[in-house]
Predict the structure.
Amino acid sequence: MRTIFTALLIFTGILSAGAQSPDSLYLLPRPQSAKLNSGRFVFAPQFTVGVQGPGSAKLTAAVNRFYIQLGKRTGVYFPQEFITAADNNAGAQLTVKFDRSVLPQIGIDESYSLNISPTKISLTASTDIGAMRGLETLYQLVAPSGTGYYCPAGEISDSPRFKWRGLMIDVARHFIPFEVLKRNIDAMSIVKINVLHLHLSDDEGFRVESKVYPKLQELGSNGYYYTQEQIKELMNYAHDRGIIIVPEFDLPGHSTSILAAYPFLASYPANYKPARRYKLDTIKKLNLMSVMKLISETPTPTIDPSKESTYTFFDGFFKEMSGLFPDPYLHIGADENNGVAWKQNPAIVAFMTAKGIKNTDELQAYFVKRLHDIAQKYNKRIIGWEEAFNPSIPQDVIVQKWKPAPAADTLVKSIIAHNSQVIISSGYYLDMYFPAYIHYLNDPVSANVSAADADKGILGGEAAIWSESVNGDNEEIRVWPRAAAIAERLWSAASVKDVDDMYRRLWMLDFELNDRAIEENTNYNKILARWVSDEDLTPVRTLANVYTQVKGYKRLMGAMLTPGAASPNLSSPLVNIADVVHADSETDWYFRQSVATYLDKHDDTYLQEIKSELQRWKNNKVRFNDLAANSPYLRQISDLSDRLSDAAGIALKALNGEGNKDDQLKQLQQMEKALHEVQLAILPELEALVTGKLKPVPAVYPLF
Ligand code: ACM
């Protein structure tokens, strides 16, 4: 819920006299340059659109989507039924002018400029895709006034900082339905993300139909996979929005599902079934050390790199998939292969000896090189996670960095020194439950990489969502709007890094994303509704809005390390509070602004606002308990409801000058401990109301 803070923010931004400051706009990502003039273009029934250029079906479609959506946003009835290539009138109120139509590719010209006067909007770009990026910016300029909708007059010129701006979605651990992928593509196009990387296979599942090797989907999945027809539709859907798709098949490790279908590919015989690869029930004493030991020392399902039949198989497979996925990249995974399965197989060891391959890292490099050569036959460039990198691999293999980077990022420097290119995903893992600002402040170019090296070798970055605890119901809640903060990091200038300003725009963007693209809000309510057989979701929504998950790997590892705890598997329901809440609490952000302003100015308006919010939280448990009478799950988490009530009550007392502040602080600090894998997001602000001092947000969160 937005508080008085937002109201003041919007009023001071929009109603000031003369030209607005570009800083008050709600553009995300922020353009490279924006200058506002006085005056505004008002959307009225005479609004017309003309497209001038050599003809582009995808731009015409994008203009029509924009036009329809603009009508919905403004409520104005526009005169054109729809816009066709024949609508090229230079005198139209909005003209979209471009020179060439291009296929979406990495490195194409995505620049555009917008010139808005009180009587005309001109959008100009070299390419149709640049014009599409500009349309998204134009849509974000549309703002309400007291009487209608307008765009401020001004000039914007814009182009991306990085060519590769991706989102990786793991569709293997839990299947992510086709329609959810389309909605993600819609959201990506709004924030100018241009690569959808689909992690299509892992131990738990193989998710795309193969006609050449049909057992892949028949035996390698639990029945959930994309048909080839769906992939073709998805490709068109993405290309129409200026987005490419990179398919990933994770090899040689993370391959249980492939081995379940074709066990002859395996490094050791076993009865393979799609499932998690580590079996924790074999560990006698379960703790972090024993799990780490298991991960580094256990042979895991791995492709055999020593047999020619392996490469014959992947030749057939890459040939088929290269036709299905026409964009020029093929991701082969190559992460987290501990090499133990290879070392334990005498035939593989003999192969290494015969070839003079000294260790399993070199054997992995041999495997990568062989797959590289096959992919090259089908005009594909290989991408591998950072473990694919070895000085002996071909230079044109693109390396995707994912491990949390040490301060001196020597790996990136080695990759660039090898004349290879790198995509950065370190710091962009959305499954860590970190708030958006942590990802936002993580520049893809670490401090010790020179600008020249970065230009040469860093293609860009990718947000990533791994789906151990994600399925079709909560994927949009988990990814959005946080992925948009990463989109801005990759599109906008490095100097754009004001966190409060990012959040101001992010929450507005979230409204746009839900309106135009995703079902984040719908799914949130859907999961909450499962807890209560009641139409009034307010008490559970009030509760869920102020909790966030414990950060880092604690949640995943916590489940793994707790005997008897349900750790996520292919059929996990994912309907608990830690599955549904946002990693970043919007309610907390607005509350924090109010608390910070109150502590700074001691303004009575803010004090009353804060008190009424605290009162609402304190009383929430009354209705919550009514609902809990009929809800087994609410009963389980009633301690969270009590905690919210107690915490708000303590802060209220402190504000009223009642009680002992030291005791109150201690009581609040005791509530920092997680319950049900979630923490009270508003706790730092409640503590600040007791102490009078608001602590800065953490600069980093530990991974464990
Ligand atoms: C990875 O997270 N194993 C790429």
